[in-house]
Amino acid sequence: MMVYLDTSVMMRKLQREAGSLREWGQWERAYSSELLRVEVLRTIDRTRLRGALTDREVADLVEKARTIFDGLDLIEMTQSILNRASQSFLTPLGTLDALHLATALRLVESGGMDLTFLTHDTELATAARSLNFKVQGASGPA
What we know:
The chain has 142 residues and is α/β, with parallel strands linked by helices. The chain has a single domain (2-136), classed as 3-Layer(aba) Sandwich (Rossmann fold). Helix content is 51%, strand content 13%. The protein contains 6 helices and 5 strands, in the order βαβααβααβαβ. β1 (2-5), α1 (7-14) and β2 form a beta-alpha-beta unit. α2 packs antiparallel against α3 and α4 (79-86) packs across α5. The longest helix is centred in the C-terminal third of the chain and has 17 residues, at 95-111. It starts with a strand and ends in a 6-residue tail after the last strand.
């Protein structure tokens, strides 16, 4: 199985939160946008600045994140991805989610691959389903 994962999936895994994706790592190949690295590291730093993480916890999370990044194919944010993210989608979608979805669309269009979209975000899951992606990870009315 080929997958595209968004930041919500990686953050739940890193933080060992309830509801983490059970199928973690059970894929042939995993893709994400280079945006993932920025979002994950910013989230860790923001949490640190709020006093919710010790220095040791930050170091552990960053080390685990880098290990995960090394196992992913991170896709460059190209002009065509930015252009597609700027266009309308069938359902409401925020900017960062639109960038993730546009990246997954570019992978499918350029490589003819069948991707499963991994997200815990129900709004992003709905948008991905509206574009015929198989979606895993989102619960509730998506």
